[in-house]
């Protein structure tokens, strides 16, 4: 079943247009990788999906129109965005950051239960509850950012460059956890990632953006196995 549908999406900043009629769809419970070179419009695409930049076109999640809504309204419809650079509130503690993720929810018991759920995915966060987020390592901050997003109980999770600045071992563990979250909770995930090989390893489908347009779409397996595609768009050899 298709969950996220994007049709003829145009977006940018001021007079500068970045996205030029993007069209894509993501099945319910799937992981979709958005790949492409720097400046292709990947971050702008995620910002347009969550209402952070003005956009024209059609964006629906489960049949509900998202385009034209504020970021707050989009979040209330079940869209959680983990921005590039993590976006944690550095002076606040780990626990305070996590609780902020549930700001649109009611029901204290359910929120407390979900805190426990987050700790099963990221056990290290339970040992850092009273620490300021700014004192965590880069990998721990990224775990916190994803954990805070999960406190929303999202239907759609948007991840922007989750491996940025992280050591390879930490990155692989983070992607393993994202894959587990997707499998166990059936959360639809759209991930923008420079490490194409890793992203394609957990995704079911992928789209390659170039200068604001999708130039290639297909299953992650097919794109990963295509040597010409890998060399031309993804920066590695098969």
Helices and strands in order:
Blueprint: E1 2-13, E2 16-27, E3 31-35, H1 42-49, E4 55-61, E5 64-65, H2 71-76, E6 79-82, H3 94-100, H4 108-121, H5 123-126, H6 138-150, E7 156-160, H7 168-185, E8 188-192, H8 196-202, E9 205-210, E10 213-219, H9 220-225, H10 227-234
Parallel strand pairs: 3-8, 3-9, 6-7, 7-8
Antiparallel strand pairs: 1-2, 1-4, 4-5, 9-10
Overview of this protein structure:
By secondary structure, the protein is of the alpha/beta class. The protein has a domain at 1-78 and 191-238: 3-Layer(aba) Sandwich (Rossmann fold). Helices cover 38% and strands 27% of the residues. The protein is built from 10 helices and 10 strands. The chain has helices spanning 42-49, 71-76, 94-100, 108-121, 123-126, 138-150, 168-185, 196-202, 220-225, 227-234, and strands at 2-13, 16-27, 31-35, 55-61, 64-65, 79-82, 156-160, 188-192, 205-210, 213-219. The strands form 2 sheets. It has a 6-stranded mixed β-sheet with strand order 6-7-8-3-9-10, with helices on both faces. A 4-stranded antiparallel β-sheet has the order 2-1-4-5, with helices on one face. A hairpin with a 2-residue loop joins strand 4 (55-61) and strand 5. Helix 3 packs parallel to helix 6. It is globular and about 45 Å long. The two termini are 31 Å apart. The relative contact order is 0.18. GO terms for molecular function: ATP binding; ATP hydrolysis activity; branched-chain amino acid transmembrane transporter activity. Belongs to the ABC transporter superfamily. Keywords: Amino-acid transport, ATP-binding, Nucleotide-binding, Transport. Residues 4-236 form the ABC transporter domain. Pfam families: ABC_tran (PF00005).
């Amino acid at each position: 079943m298709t969950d996220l549908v994007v049709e003829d999406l145009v977006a940018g900043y001021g007079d500068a247009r970045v996205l030029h009629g993007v069209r894509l769809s993501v099945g319910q419970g799937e992981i979709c990788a958005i790949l492409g070179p720097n400046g292709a419009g990947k971050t702008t695409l995620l910002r347009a999906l969550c209402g952070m930049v003005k956009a024209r076109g059609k964006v629906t999640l489960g049949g509900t129109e998202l385009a034209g809504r504020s970021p707050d309204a989009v979040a209330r419809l079940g869209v959680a965005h983990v921005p590039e650079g993590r976006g944690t509130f550095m002076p606040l503690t780990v626990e305070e950051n996590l609780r902020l993720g549930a700001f649109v929810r009611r029901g204290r018991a359910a929120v407390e239960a979900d805190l426990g759920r987050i700790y099963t995915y990221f056990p290290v966060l339970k040992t850092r509850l009273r620490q300021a987020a700014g004192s965590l390592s880069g990998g721990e901050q990224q775990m916190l950012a994803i954990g805070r997003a999960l406190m929303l109980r999202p239907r759609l999770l948007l991840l922007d460059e989750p491996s940025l600045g992280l050591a390879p071992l930490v990155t692989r563990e983070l992607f393993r956890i994202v894959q587990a979250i997707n499998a166990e909770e059936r959360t639809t995930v759209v991930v923008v990632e420079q490490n194409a090989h890793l992203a394609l390893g957990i995704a079911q489908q992928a789209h390659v953006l170039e200068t604001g347009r999708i130039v290639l779409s297909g299953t992650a397996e097919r794109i990963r196995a295509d040597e010409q595609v890998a060399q031309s768009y993804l920066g590695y050899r098969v």
